[in-house]
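User: Continuing from earlier, I have the next pair ready.

Assistant: Great, send them over.

User: Here they are, in order.

Assistant: Folding the first of the pair now:
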Amino acid sequence: MKCSNFFIVLLLAILITGCGSKNQDPNTLFLLEIEGNKKAISASETINFTVKSKKGNNIDAITYYVNKKEATINAALKGSFNFSDQKLGSKTISAKIVSDGVTYSVSKIITVLAPQKPILYDYRILETYPHDINAYTQGLEFVGDVLYESTGQYSASSLRKTNYKTGVVEKNISLENQYFGEGLTILKDRLYQLTWRERLGFIYNLKTLEKTGTFAYNKSKQGWGLCNDGTSLYKSDGTSKIWKLNGETLAEEDYIEMYTNNSKIDSVNELEWIDGAIYANIYKKDAIAIVDPNNGAIMGVINLKGLKKKVTQHNKLDVLNGIASKGEPNIIYVTGKNWDKLFKIEFFLKE
């Protein structure tokens, strides 16, 4: 009887050892190798990867994925993926492995960067206009010759209709004290204005500036900048992300992340849509990034160093913020928080 019990225990141990591998950490059994051990790649690259068995386990079948999108696989069970049509940022490369009837999964993270260095632009001032020194500028946008502006700070936020040549505010809508105004944009006959941490946006009738509704942002952290392409809205939230909003429902449907060819760019602020690209202020930087709205690549940078020194210096003077366009080639209108000037500038390739 004792001998019989011994063999039963031994048989159970063998069965547990043989079947228990499915409970093992897959990373102790298999290694996912990315070609060249790369941590980051260009969006123009095709990357190859393979799985190796660490302990001699059979590999009966493999399926590779990049962010759940199935990759190409060849006869040698190696995978490849072309990133040219992908948005930039972190991607998960994973492999589903079948070994002796058990399925395992291993993965690695890789960062997809912009395929090229951003083009650098310099600038020249064409004209200077007066601007309210008390305006904590958060958003600018033209409709014809009329400049609309959103200003921030609790108990001082506003929506303004302005004569940009004289600086005279023709209409001023004050926000309630609990709201901190942020970016704005105008689509068709509506004006949209963000608030900062209140997770709420306001909708106005463009002609009368009467508030007609509100909208919530449920995925993004905060409200910073806002622009539109004629159909959809684009919204920054102070991170590297720019969210795409449905033009009818205003739901946050997707996002891109801003990257150069070697790094991620955070603190994305005021936005303006110009000729198929997003122009973005980067908080606390004297520069404007020109962004591909399809993948987040920074295609160009306008260096505005020295512009802040051309306004009246005072103790409330803050950062560059505010971009507007009237459709003039290579010309934008810019100002900053508590700046007493609005600048019409032309940008050109840096020599």
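And the other member of the pair:
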Amino acid sequence: MLTARIALAAVASFVAVLILGPWVIRLLAIWFRERVGSASKTLDELHAGKQNTPTMGGLFIAAAVLVATLLFGRLGNPYVQLGLFAIVAFTILGALDDSIKLFTSRLGLTAKEKFLSQCALGLICTSWLYVIQQQTHYSGKIVWLDGAHQITVGKWIILWGVFVIVGTSNGVNLTDGLDGLAAGCMLTAGAAVTTLVYLSGHAKFAEFLGVPRIAEIGELCVVLGAVLGALLGFLWFNCHPAQVFMGDTGALPLGAILAIAGLAVRQELLLVIVGGVFVVETVSVILQIGSFRLTKRRILRCSPLHNHYVFQGVPETRIVTRFWIVSAILGIAGLALIKLL
């Protein structure tokens, strides 16, 4: 019944978001309204129309995922427990960051505070995952895409996992700058990773494709299915012009669960491909900062990359649609590489 429960979790979370959405958005409009403010005055002017849009929509994404998983997931499964913990913990961290931004003069948590908090939560998640998989063949190993080549790193795999979780959650967060951009890219990347998890949990498929076979991991697809359904529902309200933004409250847990799923099936290297949009957005920020500090020149008009196109006058809907297309192609390419490599 796993396949049916995955589908039911996706449908349930989608319907929950659609039903709760208008009511929750009205409440968010009272308490949590976007305050446009960044280091770029030009960007603030370009995004002036987004001022006072309800934000922290990640709250009802998380709520829908929790409800759907409680209804259709097997709560005794350790991967389900880890997935739910990650979503709740990173949602709380994101909500704290958003709240500081909305109710004080600060732009959220400081970079140090946010980074250390993400590292702490990432350490809990990766340590938990290490314990779950300690008796498996792939414990303490970084695995190449086809599962045939492995690097044994022992307990250092925990720190590697922290790096992957922090990097992915920040990547999704950086991408969340235009209406529907992060949610749409997360849908395609999430669908690819959900497929990977399902294949790894199925003995025959895993053997045929040569991917790591991870016992009990298939149950995590119920959580991931709920995430995908909730994202579809959220896009109903987040498409241009957005009625609500997810904020850090949504972006951080979405990135975290994507990373944890990749780590759990030992396919974190494939995340670089299927989550390529998030990687490029993050790298664009790093290169922009590095270039300015070293040469006092910027390689982009504004980072992350999507803002560069905003500054060029490209319509927002065109930027978002093209990023979705690239994300979909990368998701397909990532899955194809499993059999090709």
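Worth noting for the second one:
Residues 41 and 309 are 16 Å apart (CA to CA). The chain has a mean pLDDT of 91.
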